[in-house]
Amino acid sequence: MENFNMEDIKHKFLGFISKQGNPGKVPIVGGKFDSDSRTAQADKSEEIAFGQNEDNKDTQSDRDILESILPDYYQEEGFDPSLFELKKLPAELDGDLLERDLANLKKQQVVVSNHVLQLILEKQLAREQEFQRIVEVQTLVDETLSMVRRGRQDLRVAREHFTTASLGILANYRKRTIVQDLLRSLNSIKTLQLTESRMQELLTSGDYAGAISLLVECQGATAMYRHFTCVAALSGKLQDTLVMAEEQLDQALANVCYKFDESVYGKLQAAYALLGKTQIAMDQLHMHFTSAVHNSAYKVVHSYIQPDSTKKQYAHLCKNVPESEFIKCLIALCKAMWEIIYSYHHVVNWHRHHSTQELAGDSGNFETSLYEQYVHQKLESGLKRLWHDTQTRVSALFLAADLTHYKFDEFLQLLAVVHRLEQIGEEFCGSESEELQNCVRAQSSNYFKRYHTARLDELRIFLENEVWTPCPVRDGFSLLQLQEFRGLRNSLQQYAGVSPVQVPSRGSGSLDGSSVGGSFFTRYTTSDSPFDSCPDIGSLSQDENILDVTDYTSGYFSEDSDEENTELTGAVTAKNNRNRRRHDCSGPLLTNTTLTVLRHCGKYLQMSRLLRANSTEVVVCLSQLFDYYLYAVYSFFASDLPAVTSSSTLSLKLQATLKRIKESLTPNQKEEEAIEYKVGEPSMSMVVDLNSNEALHGLSERVVAVESLVFLADQFIFLKPYLEHLQPQSHTLHVLYNQSVSVASEVRRPVYACVAWRAVDIRQALSLMMRVNWEVKDVESKHSNYVDFILRDLQIFSMKLEEISKNITIAQPVVDTLWANIAHQLADIFVEGFSSAKKCSNGGRGLMQLDWTQLVSQLEKMCSLRPIPRKEFVEAYVKAYYLPEQALETFVRDHNEYSSKQILALVSCACQTNKKLRQKLTSLIEDQERLGTR
């Protein structure tokens, strides 16, 4: 044992086992089982099993033995028990151990065999039944075999009696068939020779599917007849014809980019489907659309520049477009882009309504579904790619031009064209056209800065040449009747919450040329593009009829004229001279300068409508237009207001607003150059006379100026909802409406006060009051002479006012403001006159009350003010003479509306007998004056 290698022993065991082989199964022979033999065999098996079981009882139970079997023996496939046991052998063999393992394996084999035999016996009945069925099948097979043998015998007889006689007939039939096939082949070859000309006819007539079908059929025929020598040469010729046909198909596909024809495109798709190149055709179509955009843009721009032999890049061509031809070039470019976009849109719609299955003629398969998905993705991505190429071409042209010198109507037309293109892009692919918006925003910002600065300078010239005579307009006139607001009327009325106003107009449509209802791709075609309806230059002035007199011209001079400032000044002066005539107009009081401001506002809003991004700048500029007009009216017609009167007529809010406007709009003297949006202070025209006493110191001009400002403020209030829509939560709007617009009506008081303080000769009235004897003992029954003097001046003022009202319409608020200012002035005159009295008796106090009562009663007859303003101001001063000492001290402390001089005079007269109280009150007044509380 020690001389043998363990591995050699394993190999010998394996060789021995392989020679023995597996025990075969006992074959079943014969058709039947001997029941007796089976019974004997079963009995024998039972005896064996019983004997084995009896033997095993002495050693180990069957269950323990089965559980001792290793799990590896239960593998179903690929298990070799011999090899498994050999691998378990140790490196050094032990005979006793081998004997014990062998005995254990035999025990396990016996137990397993017994269990297997028991299972076999349990299935014995089923086995017998299955064997019975096998026997029955074998019987049926024998019967079938007999029938086959008889059939073969019958066929042998038929062949011997009938086939030999029919061989001659079959041979002749075969010859005829061969001849017929040859004749068909010859006819097919002849047809193949005529295929090229026939296919060219089909291609020329547009029957692409028929041509390709014919070509595919011919190629199949050449493959069938390739054994003919003549067909081999024809096959090469057909291949060349196929290449030529594909080129014509590609050319027709390229033409689809410019003019879509549903029938032609359907034939092209059917032809490519027959060629099996539908996917390639879709890729090629997108390449053609891209080329169409670039080629069309280059061709359009090149047609508007001077002929040049050198080939230039597109960007360089755009810079060479003449300024006079730029608008036409832009519209032509947009039309060309519209043709391409229109065709692509209909290509997409065509594929949405026509499936590839219809073209291929099948009921649908996986490959077709994949292609349809590919077409859908390709068309969807092509939408944005095509629109990006369009934006790039148009933006390059728009940015290349210098638009700062264009007239506003021309620039507005450019914005309308680009805005229309943006609308098309939004409908085409849902794009916001950021590239177009950015280029338009850049150009608009530059243009608007220059334009607004020029408009401010123009407004200053208008104001300096304005003679402040009313422009006769229709009754109920508003900014909606101006042609500059034509495209904004519906929006303004909608946001203002008013019913639409029917405005006479010879035009129709909105500013940007859009019409109502339907999409661009349903309303327009390639021959009738959306850009044909964009407004032409000068079309904005064809539907305005605002004047009250039919033969009266508005006299409005816009920036459309290129005259110098001197010529403009002369034109404006001549215009205003034509307006100097007597009229009876029931419309609002406004000047041509007011109309100019409104027209500018309309143009600014038109720009903001077409370019929403610059709405912030538009709101700022609108605010500056109104502020400058407000500042000019005040500086023109309130400059002669006395300092004493200005403190009482100017509200703190108005003062702050005027100060803000002056600082924000007018340049400082220290500045070397005017800052952006700065304009010099205007000076009033020398024609306007504010010193004529007969004309009530320019009352007519003052009324026209102030009421036109109030009218302008009302129009801005009407615009407020729309402006808030453009710029919600805007600080500029808040300042505009809460400061500038809200104080417009407050300008009435200081301006009309300049007329009111001259209505009465103040010096003469005070001089007469100083001559009155206020120390009378008894109360007089007749008022003083100075009252008649003042009433006479007031009567003269009333008559002049009535005379002026015959020339212009003076509204009741204006009249009330005039008389309110006069009442304020009279109250100051009376208190000042009363304070000039050195001594005053009780009779004098009664005379003061009588004089004031007389004046108030007569003043109430002249005006409609009830009560007369500041009536209590005078009455409280007169009654203060009767106050006791304690109440007088309280009066001095609380009534700061009286001047120190007036209060001192009151104290001096009231405390003639009480020197101590007089000194105390005098000291109190001096303290108040020092502290600034009086």
Q: How would you characterize this protein structure?
A:
This protein has 934 residues and is mainly alpha-helical. It has 35 helices and no strands. Helix 11 runs antiparallel to helix 13 (326-353), helix 28 (762-770) runs parallel beside helix 30 and helix 34 (900-910) packs antiparallel against helix 35. It is elongated, with a radius of gyration of 57 Å. The model is unreliable at 19-42, 502-517, 536-543, 549-585 and 669-675 (pLDDT under 50).
C-alpha termini separation: 142 Å
Rounded radius of gyration (Å): 57 Å
The shape, in one word, is: elongated
The average pLDDT score comes to 79
- β content, as a range? under 5%
Enumerate how many helices there are, as a single number.
35
Q: Helical residue percent?
A: 55-70%
- What's the count of strands? 0
What profile does the largest beta sheet have? none
- Give the uncertain stretches in residue-range form: 19-42, 502-517, 536-543, 549-585, 669-675
Secondary-structure-derived class: mainly alpha
